[in-house]
Design a protein that fits this description.
Elements (H helix, E strand, L loop, with lengths): L2 H11 L4 E9 L5 E3 L2 E3 L5 E3 L19 E2 L8 E3 L1 H5 L10 H14 L3 E11 L8 H19 L21
Parallel strand pairs: 1-7
Antiparallel strand pairs: 1-2, 1-6, 3-4, 5-7
Amino acid sequence: PSMDDISEMMGILCRRNVAAVGAKTVDSKGEIVQCGLVYFENGLVRPAFEGMKKNKKGYMRRAAQIQFADGVSFDCVLIRRDALEMTGGIMDMLPKNYLDMDMCLQFKHSGFKVAIDPQVCVEVGEYTAPDEVAENRARLIMRERWGEILKDGGIFYNPNFKRGNARFELD
């Protein structure tokens, strides 16, 4: 990211209640890898707007507007030191998106919010989803650690949308 991008993200991070600010990430084909993360009641974690073209705005322009989110990818993120020190640290046995979401849930549990800034767009490598065994294990860990929070699904994802993907499409 450019210095302007970092300055924009820092402007959001200056809010005392924000622990982390993430950027939208795209792949070399110009498709969104993630624009935030969404969790579902069964422990499933999915990247928001995955596979959409990077210039698409998405439902209610959510892939283009700065907003609070259930979680953000740590591929490009700024984190407040004081918020990080209040958590239990990174649970590195989890696969990529689950690890990121676990950390974001720790921030929320400590009283902070997490924001996504889609105007900051960073190219990253292709995302490889975990194999079925690793994902099932991660979902189990997430339900054990965050069951009370996960039971209703993400607060930024309407229950009328399709479950299991996070593209904000009606069922």
